[in-house]
Amino acid sequence: MNDSNKIKELRKRILKGLTPRLTADSSMCHLQKYKYQPMTIGVSFEVTADRRIWAVDYEIKIQCDDSEKKKGGFVSEKLTAKDPSKRGPARKYILRQGTDLQILDKKHRISKQNSSLLAIQSLYPEFENLPHQLKTFVKTINWIGVTRVFAVSPSGLRDGIDEEKPIDGIRVSSFDLSFVLDQIKEEGRYFELFKESLCDILGLENVIFEVEVKSHPSKDKASKETAKRIRYFIIKRTGDDYSYIEEYSDGTLVVSAILEALFSEKARGPILCLEELENCLHPTAVEKLLRFLQDHADEWPILITTHSPYVLDCVNPEDVNVAVVDETGAARFKKVRNTKQLRDYLKSGFMNFGDMLVSNFVDVLGK
Asked: All domains of the chain, ordered by start, with CATH?
């Protein structure tokens, strides 16, 4: 199945209320009470287009198919953007209600099953006669929509060694660490940085990665032999002997996977999404890893989900968004603002940011 067909299949599954896993047809939305109610999803970001920085907001409301009423589809969409340095309201680039679509001042009719982001590319090939920045906005939203989420499993990573499995899929739970590191070494740009970073974060003495090409008899009678790459990913802690990566702790595997996802030019997207970064890691490794990610955030933007107060203590409060579940069961994200009250709390020294947010987030976020 090619990428276009995968996206179409994924869209059908979402509109039917199915969990978006292309290989699990029986998987259903666990929020049955809200399954047929309209669901709103929004994304806000800044992007550079035409040598200007734009603040962009995109909001979409969809409804799953009701087997009796057949009302599933796109309910509404809105894309607005503005130059933050200029006054005035944001400009409405895309506005959609049901089948009525407005792109700037031009009106169209589209299928309820089709998104405006796909329709605009059919109505205006190469965005002809539209503002150039709109192409950048739509392209960025599409990137965000297919960005991989790394929820790597230590057991999956360990079992995946020598499987030659690349980083693939929207939700990544495992891949072959040696195979991807081989690609990073061939790309050449970040291989040494990978080794240095891994040693620093985990307190390693050395990292060795070597590849040996061996010939084997071919099963195909037309060819005499085939070549196989044998990869050796070996690390050494101070006071210990050299050992293969799979013989070390779960945390060692997870940090290696995160760094490989970051440094792999073939697999990298516009942003790296990490679930529960703190899992399996010693607090010292968490702190060093977060410091590394923060130092390189301009080059590699990162989005992290966490339930750990310790992780929150290692980041700036203004970089944190908190998920708050409302009375309908929907999760809404509220940004932590650097208010005077928050600064006074932290200056008092009686409570750190992580504990304060967990125990008293209403005061932190504001009522």
From this structure: 40-145 (no CATH), 149-315 (3.40.50.300), 316-367 (no CATH)
